[in-house]
Amino acid sequence: MKLTAKNFTTFLAGALFATAAAAETELTVYTAVEAEDLARYAETFNASHPDIKINWVRDSTGIITAKLLAERDNPQADVVWGLAATSLLLLKSEGMLEGYAPTGVDKLDPKFVDNDNPPAWVGMDAWVASVCYNTVEAEKNGLTPPTSWKDLTDPMYAGHLIMPNPNSSGTGFLDVSSWLQMFGEEGGWAYMDGLHENIARYTHSGSKPCKLAAAGEIPIGISFAFRGAKSKAAGAPLEIIVPSEGVGWDMEATAIVAGTANLEAAQTLVDFTVTKEANEMYNTGYAVVAYPGVAKPVEHFPEGLLDAMIDNDFEFAANNRAAILKEWQSRYDGKSDPKN
Amino acid sequence: MSVLSSTSNKLPEGPVVKGKLSRDDIMMRGGMMVIALYLVITLAFPLYAMLSKSFSTYRMELSQYEFQVSDEDGVFDGTILTGAQLNRETGAYEDLELSTGSDGRLPVTKFFPDFSFRSPVMYMVRNTAAGGRFLVGSKLHNDLEWVTLDSNTFRRVQLRPVKATGVDNFVNYFSTPALFNSIKNSLWIAVISTIVTVTLAFWFAYSLNRSCMRYKGVFRLIAMAPILVPSLLPGIALVYLFGNQGMIKELLFGASIYGPIGIVIGSVFFTFPHAFMIISTALAISDARLYEAATSLRASPWRTFWTVTIPGARYGLISAAFVVFNLVITDFGLPKVIGGQFNVLAVDIYKQVIGQQNFEMGAVVSVVLVVPAILAFGIDRLVQSKQVALLSARSVPYQPQPNERVDRLSLAYCTLVAVFIVGILAVCQFAALIKFWPYDLSLSLNNYQFDKMDGGGWGSYYNSIKLGLLTAVAGTAIVFFGAYLVEKSNGFKLGRALFQMFAMLPMAIPGMVLGLAYIFFFNNPSNPLNGIYGTMAILVICSVTHFYTVSHLTAVTALKQMDREFESVSASLKQPTMKLFTRVTVPVCLPSVLDISIYLFVNAMTTVSAVVFLYSPKTSLASIAVLNMDDAGDIAPAAAMGMMIFYTNAAARIIHLLVSKGVLTRTQAWRTR
Q1: Residues A162, A200 contacting (CB under 8 angstroms)
Q2: Mutation site for A-interface testing, chosen from B133, B341, B440 by largest number of A Cβ within 10 Å
Q3: Is the pLDDT reported for residue B304 higher than 70?
Q4: What is the pLDDT of residues B343-367, one digit of tens each?
């Protein structure tokens, strides 16, 4: 009897130790996903994989990208879950991503999967530019709602527009790169010259223009649809406008950082990110997700957004990023100096 | 060595005493070396790493690439062309265009004037040196193999730069007007803020020191309040006051708060206590005999003011001006929150590093920013060294006489300033409690649900407290011990002078620059200290080093009260110096030790710029959360977190006050006989 009890204790201790050891796998996950969604993502993942703990590093797209590039020679992250595909392309071109074809990747829309074999990254959802329009403040200022990007250059909107600085915001860069693609190189810069006349100031983050529009600080914010829908749901007098020329978009994607010490856990996580379950989870905030047939309409989302998404060339965006940002800075950054 | 020490100390040379002394000397010098080493590793090496980074450029080494072009049928004739050759022949790129950032890319189709992506011509490309890099689309090729591509794919080839050394970054910087403008902006803002702050602080200090107005203690407390909050908090308050939905925006008559006006008002708020403290000290010591002389000479009050008061306080005024100038020009949080499109140097560093991942250019702007900061610091030191004691043994301390008009005026003026300071804080607290400004003014605690906000949860608040405590404990130990060794060890003049210089240097280094320098130094994989990157340790080290100078000066001042004879006496009593240190020196200096701790704690709680590049997931901080929440547009939660920092620091101050009182009555009884 005594022997069994002892065996039992040993077994129990062993089991305890085993769970402790298994629970010890911690993944450092870099992300640019909105903070309020992160807890939910981790919870859903941990429901099926309680043994892997996620340590989030959350910051805006630009900052996370900078962090990853700075740590190029000494990566701190194991996985990037939810970063712009253009940023991941930058990392890929530095040889920083570990190619991996997650189980079930073939079920995704191929548009959302890197075309290398094995893919360096897989997409989660699309994140689409939009205009947030505060109806209360606009009426106070006697504005009429714009219907296109070109409308926004109307002198009527002078000082009533705000957009993110592409030098520090992924959303800002997405706007600029989509205008350059839609209007052509020359047309794009000419358009931005006109737009610049109306811009009150440039913000550092992509969600701030919409939040400022929601707060009535500035009537019109160039931001993204998801943020607009959230602010509207929170009770802001917002209208989300989809410009008629089409809207730029980027996708949030997932990748494994090359050199991770926790490759197996990282692969488990990435396997999860392409599942139907995960895509249903993304759908709470995003109208367009990688898994076909999952997307249900999101409350307050503008209509026709899907059709308005332009045929985005991510490679163009990634490879010309440095040049575009330099040009943008020399044209508009600090240009508000009264003399210029 | 022993000869040196004994001559400087003029001790009678006895064999036994000398032996004891030497051992202590060696120990003290060893200790000094350890702390000097600490400063070298945490200050000199990182700054050097940053300086070398500013000269590290990226260049397209065209000679490292070889190309082959086929004929229309796709057959190669074996002619190999290098990139350099092609560029010479076609003149596709100018020399300066080939210098770029780490992120630079160069398309190659310009090398082939007849290039058409529809043509059947094939192209081959390869690196000739190991480690050369080019992209086909986003696929990296860094081996020496030939890659054969059709025309349509060949246009997706992008060359990548290699590292080089040179002044290209500086040339680029000074030829980019958008960046160059910031120097002018920064200087201008700093000068205006300095003039306004020093003027306001002077009259405030004057009222408190030279009038008999009431409630002096209250005003003194209020004047110190801004030191307890991060510099970006006034920016947030100004948005609520003067923004487009501001409560009293009419007062700006249509001018925008986003820009120089906002930066100046905010800067005045957060630099006010610093200027006030220095000027108040200068005004507190003055010789009443000079005023008596002025009165008996029948000088008008106005004349007395300009001939007696101002000259007496001039060193304080100059010092205050330089401190304010340095604080404003190196501050990053405030212009980021309220600067609008008005670019300043500190924000440029942030944008270069965070936005464009251009670390080299960030280093260049840092070098540019250090120049005015070091200059201001150097001039201040020079002026201070000329200062002579104003108060001699025969001086009679000045006592203000009641004067109803002056007292009432002083009270009115101080009230105005106090309303400004309290008002800014009150607006932040109000903003934090409003549900949805300006559409839903009901009160709620929603904004305190930090875990749901972008930028940092409650965890970051606890991290900040941890950082504050660790910085206070470790910092006080390092600083006080270092100051003790410098002040009390014998001989070794050169070493002590060098140490003094090192201890003064952190004052001149902007936090932003220090933080960036730490990335370059500590995140280098070949650095054996690489392990501390991303931990709480690097934040503590950065904070201790950043706030070293003021703590060091406080410690030195305290130690100067103790006669060096104590050491000699203990030596002749054959007591080890360390015993003297723990039994006498530390207890005597305890009030200053506590002052240093609270100074370090408060500053570690509020600092943004020094740690903005260094925090990691596990070590996010409250002050950073304020920045990030504001950045994401969550302005009310940012105000809420800022006020949490304020209350924490205020509580720490109160505890410090109580502890100091208790300690003073216990250990300082000897001061009163």
Answers
A1: yes
A2: B341
A3: yes
A4: 899 988 888 887 777 888 899 999 9
